[in-house]
Design goal:
- The strands form three sheets. A seven-stranded parallel beta sheet has the order 3-4-5-8-9-10-11, with helices on one face.
- By secondary structure, the protein is α/β, with parallel strands linked by helices.
- The longest helix is centred in the middle third of the chain and has 15 residues, at 118-132.
- Helix 7 links the parallel strand 10 and strand 11.
- The protein contains eleven helices and eleven strands.
- The chain has one domain: TIM Barrel, CATH 3.20.20.
């Protein structure tokens, strides 16, 4: 049953197509509430999902509801998320932006290890192009800066791929303003993807830098990830007052908190997807927003 304080799913879809948008780089206009495809994989973000057809249904439903920014990475599965996106959506709808990432390897389930070596990153780009069935990746993000490799070397490799026409725009993940400044001396940066949500605001300074420089900020774990939000009584109370879930309230707050915010909530459930996207229709009072601003854990 739909929440009484929210628009219907059909209305939410219409708003997703005509409402709040952001321009990534030179003309990639996206609806600000996107979709993260990490959780379409198996347990531990490893292997294929137990229900492959359901995963593809989620992707198709997201596009039906107006999502035109899908975030993934070669490490999700690994490879599985990218393959599922191509299986479900290729040939891609016009104006669909698929953002992927490289630079994290997967030794096993739940394990993540950075590799920023230039030749490895070039290989990552080529392999992602093949899996996604693309000639050019609209947004390619360095998944992590490898402490064992100079950032200039890693980004230089991505710049070469950009010059070769294989990447349109480049982004970063889990970075400080100082790291972004350093990266921008090598190559233009258009987005930053750091962990951020209503209960976790470690990267507030990076968000404010992105606002100042007009860079898109794509918060990963926008509703707390697999562990959920440490919701607290205020968040739960406000959600109940608006007949909404704490996740909808958390997403609505992100959209309200900054104009450069591009949340990418992920799920393997169509009903949960629909619930998340309806969050764009949630309307709160100034007092409610102020209360949410004070909920940082």
């Amino acid at each position: 049953m739909l929440m009484s304080g929210l628009k219907s799913i059909g209305a939410a879809s219409a708003e997703a197509s005509a409402g709040s948008r952001w321009q990534i780089g030179d003309g990639l206009t996206v609806n600000r509430l996107g979709f993260g495809a990490m959780r379409l994989t198996g347990e531990g973000i490893w292997g294929w999902p137990s229900d492959r057809d359901n995963a593809k249904k989620v992707l198709k439903r997201a596009v039906d509801l107006g999502v035109n920014l899908i975030d993934t990475a070669d490490a999700y599965g690994p490879e599985v998320s990218e393959l599922l996106i191509a299986e479900a959506l290729h040939p891609y709808p016009k104006n669909l932006v698929i953002a992927t990432k490289g630079g994290l390897t997967r030794p096993g389930p739940g394990q993540w290890s950075p590799n920023g070596k230039p030749e490895y990153l070039k290989q990552c780009v080529d392999n992602s192009l093949k899996r996604l069935r693309l000639e050019r990746i609209d947004l390619y993000q360095l998944h992590r800066i490898d402490p064992k490799v100079p950032a200039e070397d890693s980004l230089g490799a991505l710049k070469e791929m950009q010059v070769a026409g294989k990447i349109r725009h480049i982004g970063l993940s889990e970075v400080s303003p100082e790291q972004i400044e350093r990266a921008r001396k090598v190559v233009p940066i258009v987005t930053v993807q750091n962990q951020y949500n209503v209960g976790y605001r470690k990267w507030e300074n990076t968000l404010r830098y992105c606002e100042k420089e007009k860079l898109g900020f794509m918060p990963w774990s926008p509703v707390g990830g697999g562990h959920g939000l440490r919701s607290g009584s205020k968040l739960e109370t406000l959600a109940k007052q608006h007949n909404a879930s704490v996740y909808q309230l958390a997403l609505a707050w992100l959209l309200h908190h900054s104009p450069v915010m591009l949340p990418i909530p992920g799920t393997a459930s169509v009903p949960h997807l629909e619930e998340n996207l309806a969050a764009a229709s949630l309307k709160l009072t100034a007092e409610d927003w102020k209360a949410l601003d004070g909920l940082e854990a």
